[in-house]
Amino acid sequence: MLLFADAQYTSPYAMSVFVALTEKRIPFELKTVDLVAGANRGGEYAARSLTQRVPTLVDGDFTLSESSAITEYLEELQPEPALYPADLKTRALARQVQAWIRSDLLPIRQERSTYVVFYGPSDAPLSAGARDAAGKLFKAAQALLAHGGEHLFGAWSIADVDLALMLNRLVLNGDEVPPVLREFARRQWDRESVQAWVNLARPPM
Amino acid sequence: MLLFADAQYTSPYAMSVFVALTEKRIPFELKTVDLVAGANRGGEYAARSLTQRVPTLVDGDFTLSESSAITEYLEELQPEPALYPADLKTRALARQVQAWIRSDLLPIRQERSTYVVFYGPSDAPLSAGARDAAGKLFKAAQALLAHGGEHLFGAWSIADVDLALMLNRLVLNGDEVPPVLREFARRQWDRESVQAWVNLARPPM
Ligand SMILES: [Ca+2]
Ligand SMILES: [Ca+2]
Ligand SMILES: [Ca+2]
Ligand SMILES: [Ca+2]
């Protein structure tokens, strides 16, 4: 398979698919597309990717964008090791986290872009809107982790990676984050498949 | 089951779940939460909904927010009639559309809110950013419908509703939309389950 990511390896969604492929030990080649130069909006990439975004997975003559659609595809293609919980309701809760992380908390995503995570902190303080979003994030994450376990849903799932990345926008920037969430984010960050993404060679800023 | 929607019935995501329940003929009660008054951010609703958004589905003692997680849950709970295509790759493409509609095309979602769809048109012209997003939307929708069929993926799927709603932000506002996409959006709008949502009694603005 072939996975397209952004040239700086900062896309949290490309990371999610990278981790999914790595966890499943599916061999893949990693290619990049230069979003900063707009290379995704034209030429071969735009012809291939319906949504002109990263990540895009190419599996033979099948091309698929949108990270959560890709991780669901990989799960159905090769169920083991699992990316999603086996239980119907628990799987629904993992999908809830994935969908939420991708469509809400915009002020955090804007003010703590993943450049903060992969290139270095920002010294701009959080706006009122971002502090409000952070409060909502902490409340939800604390509720999900109230069981005191290592992962969100018993065994590891792809939702752990997605939630940890959202938290790490704040943790790795030095913003205030409740200790139990800081520890969760660090634990998830230490995972081998995540470290393989973190340690990719990035071009200088 | 119990479905929470916004008090004006303008949430495209609540609509998507309403249509899913209706298509599957699962009996449900519809309740509203007043987003304008912030009723989702506190009290009983915030205690119930992890993400404090609509829609939220309550199934016995199980509570789930995020529309795409809910429609996947309903599909697994009661597979027939299907919301998603049966074929692995086609199902992935339907999920691609769902994920995309929920996380991209922000200028269209902002400048053509669903108040335009359910209450009446806006006379503000589209910004350059929204026109750019519309161009991207049209290109993708035309590619998906290049087969000339009635639905995106052979049989009807929940992705038809989601794409048609995004197109109808423009169509129903009188913005310029390619005829083949206008016709697709109108056809999907005429569907009985969609009309059941459209015809809900809305409070005056
Ligand atoms: Ca996605
Ligand atoms: Ca992680
Ligand atoms: Ca959703
Ligand atoms: Ca429709």
From TrEMBL, chains A, B:
Cytoplasm recorded as keyword: no
Gene Ontology biological process: glutathione metabolic process; L-phenylalanine catabolic process
Alphabetic keyword roster: Transferase
EC nos: 2.5.1.18
Domain GST N-terminal: 1-82
Pfam families reported in the protein's UniProt record: GST_C_4 (PF14834), GST_N_3 (PF13417)
GO molecular function: glutathione transferase activity; maleylacetoacetate isomerase activity
Protein name: Glutathione S-transferase
Organism in which the protein naturally occurs: Pseudoduganella umbonata
